[in-house]
Amino acid sequence: MTWLIAGGLAMYFEAVAIAAELRDFPGGSKALAFSIMPTIEALRIIRWPADRLDTLGGYLAYHNITLFTFFLALYLGIQGSRLIRSLEERRDIDFLLATGLARARAAWIRAAATICALLLISLGLGLGTAFALEISGEPDAMGSIITLLAAGICIVPFFGLGFLLSQYFASTRVASGTTSLIIVIIYVVGNISGKYEWLRWFEYLSPFSYANRSRPVVPGFGVDYLSWIGMSIIGLVLVAIAVRIFAHRDVNSVAGPSLHSRTSQKGRRSREIKPSTLTIDMLWRQRIGLFAWPMATTIFISVFMSMMPGVIDIWAKFDFIEQFSLSGFGESVEEQYLAMVYEILPPFLAGYVISQSSIWNAEYVQGRFHLLFSTPLSWTSLLLRRILVVMVISQTMILFSIGAVVISSEIQGSPQYNLGAFRVWAMSSLFVLAFAATNALLVLLLRGRNVTQILSVYIGAAWLVGFMAPYLDWPDWIVRLSIFDAFGHPFVDWPSSTNFSVIIGMILVGITATLILGNRMSKVD
After folding, report:
1. Range(s) of the domain holding residue 306
2. Per residue, what are the HEC states of 4-52?
3. Does residue 344 lie in a domain region?
4. What is the value of pTM for the model shown?
């Protein structure tokens, strides 16, 4: 339901904004497509393909549908990783099997339900796209629905991949992280495979490329039903293999030898929960995240930095630099580009904090929350430790990212902007602290009830509002609801006093309310 509502609304508002941009651009839609194509080509590692950008269907397919397919693939891969393993972690698998249902049958039922949900999500996104095109004056209902259905069907192999990998990992988080990493690599390499002759073979391995073969929403493109059939078969084969492995292994175990499983079990036997060592224990439990989040953020920013010379040349060639200077994002071309690069950091930080909220929520659902309070531990102590862990990992992300920009700038001979980098560090740190405090309050109030979904929807909406508001003439108060607006553009300048007050207010209200309510509420329901 979250995907249907949020995705449909996002598709609608984005389409309206894009239609306005195509309509109002000097010289018309063809001039717009011609002017942005060099930049899109330079940044194809992020999003590709880009066809018929002079039409609403083509622009929407590039700007929205491509990313929706990618995020849906990540969601599906994570769902596959959690399909059975999450039940085992929560010990709910015992209740399921106590009904007399065979393990293989139970796995197939859950897999079928997930795939049906995927088809409904794809259909809902297709209907949202169709409605958006209708409102914008370029109706194409069937093209919209078929394009999004193709996207959903062709990424089924990622679900099977996640389910299969989860049989070899004792932790849902490790299985989900591994699956997500593979999906990101396939997506990124697939985007650039057409650019290099020696890499074209990779297109035949990427489910994304098969999804792109069915884009009737783009004028001049048709449907490839063989891709639908082929990807469906591959996905079901992977699911069948995973089901067979699950049916023949022990419950709460892994298929084959698992260093992770042995290490985790050994760690559980050798460590007991003590308030004095709780912070270290929290960091140890997230040792993979301590490595993965900073590395992912740093790699992504490093990729952007590697493209800086080429993009700057394109901006200079097409006289974009003067236009960007008027926007207020710095005076020199390097400063403008770095300002854009640092805009990537807040979504990564928000994603990390949401993942922490998921961990806090899971601790309550799985009973670890109650175990913690069986020790001499207060609410204040627990909250401060959680915030400290968040700040340690987020600081690693921030400093690694700034370091990547500084090193890349030095290698390329670009000027250093030390004050801008300091502002980014300071505001990013406050951003994390504000969002973490708010998340802690929500986790306390909701206690296991869809906290992650609510926060994810908010972050997605907050990110989109900043792009859509200028095109749709929305009032300023709507933009003010976005935490990204409060973050501002610190590389260029400090945020306004109002935005700064919002960040500080979120920190104070979140921490104070969590402490007051936490000490008043029962720790055991």
Report:
1. 277-525
2. HHHHHHHHHHHHHHHHHHHHHCCCCHHHHHHHHHHHHHHCCCCCCCCCC
3. yes
4. 0.78
